[in-house]
Write a structure and sequence with these properties.
By secondary structure, this protein is an alpha/beta fold. It has one domain: Luciferase-like domain (TIM Barrel). The protein is 45% helix and 18% strand. It has helices spanning 17-32, 55-63, 83-96, 111-117, 124-140, 177-185, 198-214, 236-253, 257-260, 278-286, 292-305, 318-332; strands at 2-7, 38-41, 70-77, 101-106, 143-147, 152-157, 170-173, 189-191, 225-232, 288-290, 310-315. A hairpin with a 4-residue loop joins strand 5 (143-147) and strand 6. Helix 3 packs across helix 5 and helix 6 packs parallel to helix 7. The longest helix is centred in the last third of the chain and has 18 residues, at 236-253.
Length: 333
């Protein structure tokens, strides 16, 4: 199993903002000297849930202090970008990292972001996919033309070209069955999580396999990152305390019904059942919680059951990250 890290930049205490970035860079330094494959940077806007509005800028900073670690975007929220500007920034990041970029892109769902960036729930998916298509056209040919719903170009040359030949690996974030079917039908590599239950991840992974094969594509050995929240402690009780605090922050700041009410029922599988405490849902159905041996056993179980060949770790505390790096990662990677 490959292991990457989904890096949020949560500003929980509203202390000096530099502490958020210093903590992340401490993780980067430790990851560079460990078996982690990639740091995946989460893009969010207008929320203290994660204060990283520019994953290309953050990725370039990380590229300057590492030589081995891959740098992923999880994800660029495509609908908020001009596609030509996005591909220019991705190419520069790929060059500065000497070919270590993994490009993950997605739709997003935050209504505040939609409003302030001028997109709607009705057009965000089409904008996301058209931008993804334009970036890849720019990577496939030195000059390209595009005539779409939102953008129209003739004979465009985007410079500089990416470092990787022919281009960085491409991943699409897929959450709903409909988005998984669309991505699988076109042969895209997808990434799953982090708010889906383990059972939902199993269902989605199976659906993706079926759709890929039905459309003549081969899943093969491609990396399929699945994000899982993890909470570790010296005892299970300590781990549960960490998970409960982190889940409460996540639910209150970001993953709640107010953030998805504007989306249609077919566009997300994040469930907010009013009869189920949302924090308990994370503890019982989403997060991997326990001591190091318990977490190792559970992750190996998911590796076999889902199957999960690429874990994108979302640690629920910095102490969890340290314990995972020391006590769990060597047993998985």
């Amino acid at each position: 199993m490959k292991v990457g890290l989904l890096q949020f930049f949560s500003w929980t205490g509203r202390g000096p903002i530099t502490t958020v970035y210093d903590r992340a860079m401490d993780r980067v330094d430790r990851m560079e000297d460990s078996a982690f494959d990639c740091i995946w940077l989460a893009e969010h806007h207008f929320t203290d849930y994660s204060v990283c509005p520019s994953v290309t800028l953050m990725g370039t900073h990380i590229a300057g202090r590492t030589k081995r670690l891959r740098i992923g975007t999880a994800v660029t929220l495509n609908a908020y970008y001009h596609p030509l500007r996005l591909v220019e920034e991705l190419n520069m990041l790929d060059i500065f990292s000497r070919g270590r970029l993994n490009w993950g892109s997605g739709r997003g769902f935050d209504p505040d972001e939609f409003k302030l960036f001028g997109v709607t729930s009705g057009d965000v998916y089409d904008r996301f996919r058209e931008t993804a298509d334009i970036v890849q056209k720019a990577w496939q040919s030195e000059r390209f033309s595009h005539h779409g719903k939102y953008y129209d170009y003739d004979n465009v040359m985007v410079l500089p070209r990416p470092y990787q030949d022919p281009h960085p690996p491409v991943y699409l974030a897929a959450d709903s069955p409909d988005s998984i079917r669309k991505a699988g039908a076109e042969g895209y590599t997808i990434m799953l999580g982090p708010h889906s239950s383990n059972a939902d991840c199993n269902y989605k992974r199976t659906l993706y396999q079926e759709v890929m094969e039905a459309n003549g594509h081969v899943v093969g050995g491609r990396d399929l990152p699945i994000v899982r929240f993890v909470a570790l402690g010296e005892t299970r009780a300590q781990a549960e305390s960490v998970a409960r605090a982190s889940s409460g922050w996540t639910v209150g700041a970001y993953a709640n019904a107010s953030k998805t009410a504007h989306l249609g029922p077919q566009t997300t599988t994040i469930k907010f059942d009013r009869k189920v405490d949302p924090v308990e849902r994370y503890l019982n159905d989403v997060a991997i919680v326990g001591t190091a041996p318990e977490v190792v056993d559970r992750l190996k179980q998911l590796e076999s059951e889902i199957p999960m060949n690429y874990l994108m770790l979302a640690p629920m505390s910095h102490d969890t990250f340290l314990r995972f790096t020391r006590d769990v990662l060597p047993k998985l990677a």
